[in-house]
Amino acid sequence: MKFIYADSLDVVDPGYDFVADRNAPGRSPHWDDVYAHEILGYAPYDGILVSRGIVGGDKVAGKYSESQAMRFRRVGARAFLRLDDPRFVRMPIFGDCGAFTYHQDEVPPYTPEDTAEFYADGGFTHGCSVDHIIFDFDETVTGMDGGTDETRRRFDITLENARAFLPAVRQISNSFTPLGVIQGWSPGSMAEAARRLVAMGYDYLALGGTVPLKAPQIKSCLSAIRDAVPKETRLHILGFAKANEIESFAPLGITSFDTTSPLLRAFKDAKANYYLPAGAGRLAYYTAIRVPQALENTKLLRLVKRGVLSQEDLVSMERAALDSLRAYDREECSLEETLEAVLAYAAPVMLGATLDDLPGSSSVEVLRERYHRTLADRPWLQCSCAICRAIRIEVIIFRASNRNKRRGIHNLSVYEALIKSLDRRELHEGHADLFRCTSSTEPIAHGSLFPGASVRAEAVCGD
Q1: pLDDT higher than threshold 80 for residue 459
Q2: Terminal CA-CA length for the chain
Q3: Would residue 258 show up in a list of annotated catalytic residues for this protein?
Q4: Active site (annotated) includes residue 32
Q5: Catalytic residue among 7, 33, 96, 329
Q6: Res. 294: pLDDT tops 90
Q7: Which member of 7, 258, 329, 423 is catalytic?
């Protein structure tokens, strides 16, 4: 089971000054900022996925700037992502169309032909057919029952595009492995889509539209699909939002999946921001300690306008929180002193009022409990990754992009080690034969899974 990271220009400034809170002098973002595989010194994933919708262009406005998109097309995905280093040169690069970026359109803005050309020109190793996302889901119907006229129209569009995609790939010399995308409104309709895709000639399928589904619903879809296709058919899950439940999915015949979840949870989750391994295929989660920039946080500035706090108060509380955390890391400040300084500043940020105005509040007590556990356990000292070794307690501070994304990159390293441990367990139990890599000498277009991909078996974090 291969973990493919869905990239969205997730880079950090390697020379960032955490005490002064400023970028390195003369920094040029594109040339100086680094990806996860550069700052860690190894890739905390088995491959990278880039969505065409994220890159953008004349049909869809993406996240890349115009100059970045032009350079991506000029030099290709591998050079742009700096995967042309000998350590990463064989790493697979997946592409999809980013169906969510055009989900409101009547039809996808891309054709099978120009999508095949996009993948070939970009040097992708794997490319997904053009799909039209279906959000409806009804697990009570069987077979091809149910489905609105709109969901059936999108179902047909996705399959028609997949049918035209294969000859388009063949026309450009089979330079990448094509994946046929599955969309449906029920386990039965997804199974039928998978059956038709295999009949077209696909031996690698990508299951889409799973983001809003619950884990049991995704499992029922996977089970139905597996019953409908040959056992050697490989299966990828697009945008796997249940990445933290991956252990329960391991026996279901997943070849690969892509997700951004470990990085995003570093700064988009209310409490599970920092990962550590917990043994037996599990993760432990810690809450990052919020110390936002006093003069830039909108919630704090509203309190200043209301006269609850002055800007001078905010700057003083911010400095006290940061100084206490760093002193605690050096064992020069007690846990309780540090906790009080942090909570005095965190309460206005998180709860919209000072601690004095929130006596006995359950919200304060919940925050106190979470922060106490984080500080008491000192998880940043339990990790040996390059980020935690370099910046220590700064990684657990929730504050602007350079800390938050570093914490997310740390999470990727822990998550990748978890996936490797699950793979080793599957091998030990004898369940992985169908999905292991074939010889690195087998051509990509002829069905090798991840030809020549390097494997780093050692765990990256430990006690």
Answers
A1: no
A2: 26
A3: yes
A4: no
A5: 96
A6: no
A7: 258
